[in-house]
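Quick question, first post here. What does this chain look like in 3D?
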Amino acid sequence: MFSVYILLLSNKQLYAGITNNLERRLKEHRQGKSTFTKHRLPVKIIFYEMFNNKEDAEKRERYFKTSKGKKSLRALLRNTLSNI
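> Answer (accepted):
Ran it through. Tokens below.
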């Protein structure tokens, strides 16, 4: 199984990632082992989706990194993001 996940960074930026082990990957982010997020701690997971196929997960992650994907993600998580 593959997870596509969205983190909320300390600077209110969203980070999209993909992994085959969500628990391990979140631990790495929280320990500062990820180059992009280590200077934006703490991080909080606010969304994830599971996929059986790696290619489908990669396609979804790429979508979330587009302007349209970011816009739809912010609309989907409107209530979550407004409570921060």
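Strands lie at 2-8, 14-19, 44-51.
The domain at 2-82 is CATH 3.40.1440.10 (GIY-YIG endonuclease).
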